[in-house]
Design brief:
Length: 231
Amino acid sequence: MRDIQNIVILTGAGVSAESGVATFRGPGGLWEGHRVEDVCTPKALERQPELVHRFYDERRAKLSTVRPNAAHEALARLDAEWTGGLLLVTQNVDDLHERAGSTRMLHMHGELKSALCAACGMRRPWDAALPPICPTCQAPTLRPDIVFFGEMPYQMDAIEAALANADLFVSIGTSGAVYPAAGFVRTARHYGAQTLELNLDPSEGSIWFDDSRMGPAGTLVPAWVEEVLRG
Ligand code: OAD
């Protein structure tokens, strides 16, 4: 740990699982029988706008019933106490990292509590169910500010710059099934970072990690943060 200055952390649905937010894949996944790839696409929004809106409206409403868990809290502690560089990149669209207190972070797949107008590009915080009409341009094109399959994730330049400077890359609670996030471990390795995975089971890219620790994020993450801060 002595040589580590810059840390990049990638989180996925597994970090919020112990808060009661369902993960995407596997039994009991968020779409209950549908593959997330079949419904979270621009085409799905075009063909079944009510279904897609209802799905995200329900998930947005559910946020008020869940709370950050020990993993979110430990990552917020690391953000507050780590004096080197740190970037937390989350694939999650919930707001549990920021509610726990993380600030050096970004949402690469968008946020439930944000609205996007497909016509004028307006993005703004949004707490309630989404109406179809954009308040800025009045077009019937308001949509969840979520990066659908086939769309470009947010802030890729900032993420790639952080990966190029990372001494340690840590992936937490993600299946490694969705690119470009699933490729970050290889980018970080390419630039010489050590790589660590904390997950319930080995992810699809498990072989790319120098070290893999298996278990629940609520236990593994606080222990790892303690280790890092102790040096
Ligand atoms: P997945 O549902 O694909 O994977 C969740 C991972 O978390 C799995 O590897 C689980 O084993 C692990 N896991 C479950 N419970 C855990 C726990 N308590 N502690 C630690 N790990 C646990 O979710 P993501 O990898 O986040 O995209 O999915 C990536 C993207 O696919 C999502 O961001 C989403 C989806 O399409 C968008 O919404 C745009």
